[in-house]
Amino acid sequence: MSHASDPPTTALDAHLDRALSRLRQALPDLPFDDADLLAQVRALALASDFAIDVCVQQPALLPGLLADGGAMPAAPPVLDPALRTDWGTLLRRHRRAESVRLIWRDVQGLDTLDQTLSGVSQLAETCLRIALEALEAEFAQRFGTVRDVDGHPVRLVVYALGKLGGGELNFSSDVDLVYAYEHDGDSDGTRALAAEDYFARLGQQLAKLLDEVTAEGFCHRVDLRLRPFGSAGRIALSFSAMEQYFQRDGRDWERYAWQKARAVAGDIEAGERFLQALRPFVYRRYLDYGALDGLREMKATIAAEVARKDLADDIKRGPGGIREVEFLAQALQLIRGGREPALRERRLQVALRALRDARHLDDEACEALLAAYRFLRVLENRLQMLRDAQTQRLPEDPLERERLARSLGEPDWPALHARLQMHRERVGREFEALLAPRRRAAQPDALVLYWRALRDGAEDTPRDALADAGFADVEAVDQALRDFARAPGVRDLSDAARGRLDRLMPALMATVATSPEPLLALRRLLAVLHAILRRASYLALLDEQPAALTRLVDVLARSALLGERLAAHPLLLDELLDMRVAGPLPQSDAFAQACTQALQQDDSEGALLALNEVRQAFGFRIALACLDGRQDGVASARMLAALADAILAAVCTLALRELEAQHGCIPQAEFAVLGYGSLGGRELGFGSDLDVVFVYDAPADAMSEGARPVDAARWSARLAQKIVALLGAPTGAGRLYDVDVRLRPDGAKGLLVSTLERFEDYQRHRAWTWEHQALVRAHAIAGDPALRDALECVRDQILARAREPSALREDVRAMRARMRAELDRSTPERFDLKQGEGGLVDLEFLLQYLVLRDGAVRPALLRPRDTPGLIDALRGEGLFDDACATGLRAAHEVLVRAGLMCTLDRRARIVAPTEALESARRTVREACAAFGLADAGVPA
């Protein structure tokens, strides 16, 4: 009996009272007058009618949750073959009880969102696994086991796509499944079935066992429509049939779907192997902005569905909803995941963080998307927990709205809705920014009309548009563009690719016209376009990213070498975008890591291709940094040498792997590679060859242990030959390096590989002074550490020998005079950066002379191999004063950078004098004169 002084009963209070009354009747022994217990039960009743229903139906459930907080999942049911009719009931009761446990932990704040999503996913996987295993045993009794042609058993593979594939299943979601099997065959029972029929029946039974609605409800709704050819396709396909489908008929939306694919039941090991084989379909090897077209189509379809079905309040499909966060992350993954393995991530939150770490999302955007996604997923779960319904629509009923708001810690519905709108608006802005066509400012109509007329084959196309755009040599530009438009590659483009090219060309022409050398830049750019016409993703890159086109024109105008590399290897277009957002340039550890990953390919050919791609990508990145002045010339040359070190070490490993497969190993043998010249001196240029010497050490009678044994000398020689061959082998990504082995003992007349003893004997007794000069820059780069250490000791001992200074000086002067007479290409108007007077070789000879002269009494001079290091060491020993050392380092940078810039533009390293260059030459000449090496062009 109510009293006038009692507060009015709200609809929410009444609802909670009814739920508590039902629980009291079902569980009369629970102490509902306990305040803590009552608060926990009211929180459960506030969030989920479904949970209250299950607690009433399964009275033992709630006391257990109150006792331990639902910390441990219940053991899955045992599906007894003798009680076949009970299987569905057991699975459904288990799923309902476990779902209530997860709801309990969620509403009591015992689990995080990630733990809830993982728990829901694990529950679905458990039900799938035990259901499949029970059905497999039943099918084995009826039809036998499917076996391939070799008699090996074949099992069904159950793939989960969507949120279950990512391990992020929401509370009442269906599960997107695809069935497959590794090999065709037949079952071996008395009622034999072909694999296709066997696994189709098995898959249908699995879906029915989980999905069929009974008096106990359902276990998991199963959706099989994502299989190849959709509802019209076969229920289960062999791996080979799946592969053929994706090669011929795979569509863009399927790439998105299979990003998250994961084998969750059946032959999981075989299933994961197939996913590795499918990776090239999902993640293209090149930068794939074409993925945005597929996303735009999916978005348009969803937008039409939202409008048709009035789904604006759908937090999954509506504006700023869950799907937009998912699609945004997946699109960025598809664009770059082929080149960046760290982005191939099934889990959405992990994927967003990986995109941030790779600098494809800024920190603020990433945190905003993560916060929005987590809020939306919590809200989605609470919507579905209410009645175990597969819904993402916001409720219209005032009571349900209030319950939802209160269960999520908000005072009322308007507060919750405002929070939701804030997140949706931020998601919407990020998503639209990604999908909005990245159009550059509209180009003048004249250029658009000019290109269209040219493309359509008009003979009398007016050229005024070219002159107005800023081209000087209009006739040559028109002819180059006309030849391009008539090329078969342009004429045969698909409609989509032609549309992209039509949008690109006017922008391209306008951008090229503003470059310092328009005709030169245009010709180089058209060569690149010819190379990428058949690869729609590259046209998409330039179409979607105007910054990439601008950057491309800028690079091509300044570097013939990079233009050639881009035309030959369009994968390098990726670097044009990366360098606009990249932080510090990669260092030696990054080179080594990339080379190690390349060696993980299954075969030598694949490993060699991967190594070439590593060299191309890193070399291109270093070249861009040098070209832009973001890194000085000496640092760029040192970085190129470090890259060569890493690749040379990897090639040695690859060659050793091949050799041991043929002849076995020699446990007592050691092998090493000495780098000479610009490689040893850490001053490598773009396109430089590698000066190397091979050395081995082994007992005289050592033999390899393989099926075709050879002695140590032949084994080492073949290893060296393989290294040289691999370095120069052509691949789809080019060749690694040309190799020069003429600096070995006795030069071209000597053996390709020397023993350590012979190498030391030669250096002690027969080497010329110039060979000891070369030894100053020598560096043991790859091979067995013990032998490398031994070679370093030999080098130190040779360089530390006492020498008669005047005789040494005359030897150095004579060799310099001979080299200049034969190699210096300077003229009165132009200067040879390397061989000219006051050039790089003069500086190198000066430093080498001083090391050989004073190495016996100044051991600190023996450590450095690079020019800056040697200058610093000589200053440290008092041979150079501070002004001389500073001037020589500056001169060295000027000469090195000038040489690199010549190489980047495919010009000989012979340049017109500049003030900086003349100052550098003067510094080098004065230093040489101070030590008696002046006028080395004429022997004293």
Automatic annotation (TrEMBL):
Residues 296-434, 813-897 form the PII-uridylyltransferase/Glutamine-synthetase adenylyltransferase domain. It catalyses: [glutamine synthetase]-L-tyrosine + ATP = [glutamine synthetase]-O(4)-(5'-adenylyl)-L-tyrosine + diphosphate; [glutamine synthetase]-O(4)-(5'-adenylyl)-L-tyrosine + phosphate = [glutamine synthetase]-L-tyrosine + ADP. One of its GO terms (molecular function) is [glutamate-ammonia-ligase] adenylyltransferase activity. Its EC number is 2.7.7.89, 2.7.7.42. Residues 89-276, 550-789 form the Glutamate-ammonia ligase adenylyltransferase repeated domain. InterPro entries: GlnE, GlnE_rpt_dom, NT_sf, PII_UdlTrfase/GS_AdlTrfase. Residues 1-438 are annotated as: Adenylyl removase. The keyword Zinc does not apply. Residues 444-940 are annotated as: Adenylyl transferase. Keywords: ATP-binding, Ligase, Magnesium, Multifunctional enzyme, Nucleotide-binding, Nucleotidyltransferase, Transferase. Its cofactor is Mg(2+). Pfam families: GlnD_UR_UTase, GlnE. SUPFAM superfamilies: Nucleotidyltransferase, Nucleotidyltransferase substrate binding subunit/domain. Gene3D superfamilies: 1.20.120.1510, Beta Polymerase, domain 2, Nucleotidyltransferases domain 2. Belongs to the GlnE family. Involved in the regulation of glutamine synthetase GlnA, a key enzyme in the process to assimilate ammonia. When cellular nitrogen levels are high, the C-terminal adenylyl transferase (AT) inactivates GlnA by covalent transfer of an adenylyl group from ATP to specific tyrosine residue of GlnA, thus reducing its activity. Conversely, when nitrogen levels are low, the N-terminal adenylyl removase (AR) activates GlnA by removing the adenylyl group by phosphorolysis, increasing its activity. This is Bifunctional glutamine synthetase adenylyltransferase/adenylyl-removing enzyme. It comes from Lysobacter brunescens.
